[in-house]
Design goal:
4-stranded antiparallel sheet, mainly beta, 126 residues
Length: 126
């Protein structure tokens, strides 16, 4: 089970830190990802982190503004979001991918993720 937290409302230029807590004792066997879904639009990839936390990958539109990190002792994955704009308004989801190898470069493929959280709303006002 994945449970996101940390969403809310913020003004443009502000920051938020999302956190996702995972239950179970196999957290370090999952590639973890963050995705978002704006109103009326498809869910899209934001960032992913490898099982050991060594490797990360980002979507172009958040690179340099968002940072993904994980703590395998606490079973958590975070998304630090800086310099937010109204275009970042969306429901944000964390997801866990057990099947893929990091080297296949499929971290952005929604269908490769086995488990999803319920989502947390982020609203950025201008």
């Amino acid at each position: 089970q994945l449970v996101e937290s940390g969403g809310g409302s913020v003004q443009a230029g502000g920051s938020l830190r999302l956190s996702c807590a995972a239950s179970g004792d196999t957290f370090n066997t999952f590639i973890m990802g963050w995705f978002r879904q704006p109103p009326g639009k498809e869910r899209t990839f934001l960032a992913a982190i490898s099982r050991g936390g060594i490797f990360t990958v980002y979507a172009d539109d958040v690179k340099g503004r968002f940072t993904i990190s994980r703590d395998n002792d606490k079973n958590t994955v975070d998304l630090q979001m800086n310099n937010l704009t109204p275009g970042d308004t969306a429901v944000y989801y964390c997801a866990a991918n057990r099947r893929s190898s990091w080297s296949t470069n499929r971290q952005d493929k929604l269908d490769d993720y086995d488990y999803w959280g319920q989502g947390t709303q982020v609203t950025v006002s201008s």
